[in-house]
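In the laboratory, one determines a bound structure by crystallizing the protein with its ligand and collecting diffraction data. In a computational setting the workflow is compressed into a single prediction: the sequence and the ligand go in, and a structural description comes out. We illustrate the idea with 4'-deoxy-4'-aminopyridoxal-5'-phosphate.
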Amino acid sequence: MRVINFNAGPAGLPLPALERARDELLDFQGSGMSIMEHSHRGKEYEAVHNEAISLLTELLGIPATHQVLFLQGGASQQFAQVPMNFLTAGASADYLMTGVWSEKALDEAKYYGKPRIAGTALNASKGYTRVLKQAELQLDPAAAYVHMTSNNTIYGTQWHTFPEAGRVPLVADMSSDLLWRPIDVSRFSMIYAGAQKNVGPSGIVLVIVAKDFMAKGRTDIPKIFRYSTYAENNSLYNTPPTFAIYLCRNVLAWIKGVGGLKQIEQWNREKGELLYGAIDRNAAFYRAPVEKESRSYMNVVFRLPTEALEETFVSEAKKAGMVGLKGHRTAGGIRVSLYNAVTVENVKALVAFMDQFFKKHG
Ligand code: PMP
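The predicted complex, in structure-token form:
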């Protein structure tokens, strides 16, 4: 029996994508072996690889100015790899601080140049409860790039309008909200995302990079860390995580099959409205710290009146078949991750549970 999975990442995967993997596991398309056992240079794997790239390109409407790359090392490696490629000693880059992941990205950039904080949403008493407004940004027109985190997985905040960076390349960590809705990719010089939340399993990072930006990358760093190496070799410079890419292909094909990102966005908005509705109905009990205009549709965080009640909430939900509700270890409270694999029905079940829980304990 499968549970309702609200994990923050690795997260639930759409059932049809898993069923397809199950059906193809032992004998991939009559080849007598699984896709994992094929050479990454063989025609069977190559077709899967190219299909994953073309599905992502089609779903997001990625323009010809940009290229899709598959990297490893998690989004955390991108924190280092972006400055490694685009910051020279003494050069600066602007960082927009909206949570722990932005802080980690900033820290890695310090090894290569002089990253600046061009805006921070950190409040001394409240922590991170919102994203930034354009008027708060102090952008340096000479920066090598502006770095932002589009969705803050731990704090449950999300940029609903992307910042204007002028002529400075905009780089976004979209690990926890890539593919939650259509976006205008041309606004970004680079997007990167660890796949394990909304796109597939862990072990693979999707990168969408503008070719002109990539061309400015340093060439005095090892080849394996240059974006251009991956671009020149269609992400087959060395052995990629073939099974992870195969599973992303299954998820992307599922998204296309259900009607693409317009349909996905409609479901995600419905899910978010259902859950925030349940929180706001009993706002003194389910206390949501995030400012309304910064609320995330991917990670919804709230507190209960006591930590003991939070524990009861998590354990009673588990008995009701719902897992993954405990907040991040640094933030506490409850976190509900509503990635694409979570259905409207799943959220209705949670909301019914929350209303019951309030009646019993409120
Ligand atoms: N960025 C964001 C927004 C994240 O949520 C996470 C992981 N939770 C990371 C980066 C780090 O990802 P990884 O563990 O794949 O390095």
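The longest strand covers residues 114-120. Keep in mind that any predicted model is a hypothesis to be tested, not a measurement.
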